[in-house]
Specification:
The chain is of the alpha+beta class. It has eleven helices and nine strands. It folds into two domains: 212 residues, no CATH class; 67 residues, no CATH class. About 2% of the residues have low confidence.
Length: 306
Amino acid sequence: MYLYSAAGSLFIEDVLLNRIAEKLRISFADQLNRHVSPGELNAWRNSLQSFAHVLSHYQLTNVGVVLEMQLPLTSKRLDCLLTGVDESGHPSAVIIELKQWADAEASSISDCVVAFVGQAPRDMLHPSQQALQYKQYLEDSSTVFSEGKVRLAACSYLSNHQHDSDSPLVASKFTDLLTQVPMFSGDQTHEFGEFLRQRLASGDGLETLKLVSESKYKASKKLLDHVTEVIKGRSEYVLLDEQRVVFNAVLGLVRGGYHHKQKTVVLVKGGPGTGKTIIALNLMAALSGEGYRRAYVSCPANVPHC
C-alpha cells in the first residue's frame, strides 16, 4: 500500500502546482480512514519541494515515484521509493529517507543521533540507518528484491542541512553506514542527483514500478520456528525505527549497569503489531551472545495481572 504513485514528470508538476500534499491527504484519509496530522502535512509540503527540485534539475522525469509506501506486515511507511533502470540496463529502485533536520547532536545510543522532533530533542535513528533497515526489510520480505529482479539501494536526504564535516551526522562511527547508505545534505544536490541518475535514469521507471507493485510478499515468518536461530544471534526480523532505538537503549543500559547495585526496569509500550516481541527476541539473541544471564517470559493476553 502506498499513498501516491506517478511518473517523475507528474510528481514534479504536482509539487510545482502545490497539489502534492492535498493528494497525499486525500489518499491518507481514503486508505487509513483517519485524518493526517497538520505536522505530517507540512512535512510533506516542505520536504517534497526540495526533492522535486533535484529530480527536475537532473531531468529524472522518467522515473517512477512512490510516496509513503507501507512496508508489508508492518504499520511503517518509507518516505519515498524511486524506480528506474540503472546504467547496466537492470531494473533498479532507490529508497530515500527524507528529513528536514537542520542538524543533530551526538547520542549515547548506538546508531542514533539527537534531533529536535515534536518540539523536543529526541534520540532518533540516524536517517541512513533508518533507510538501511527499510532496505533490509524489503529485501527480506518482497520477492522482486529478494530474487534480484530489481536491484535496491538506499540513501537519506536532509534538505535543510548544510554539509559540515564536524557534524555528529557524519561522525567516524557512521563511516561504514554512510558508505553503504550515503547521506546527502541540501547543499549536495550534485552528488545526490548523480547518485540517483546512475541507478535510475537509463530506462522506463514505470515498468520497474509495475514489477515492484506486482511483487508477492513472502509468507510471514512463524515466530516460534525462528526463536532458536534468533537466540543464536541470527536475527530473522529487522528492527525498524523506534524498535531499533529501544533495542539499543536497553542493550546500552545492560552493558553499562549490569553489575551496579542500582537496577533499572524498562517498560516498552505499544499496541499489537508494534514489535515488542521482536525487540525482546533480538535482545535475547544479543544478550545470549555476550554471555549475560537472561530469561524470556510471555503471557497470554487473556490472563489478567500476569
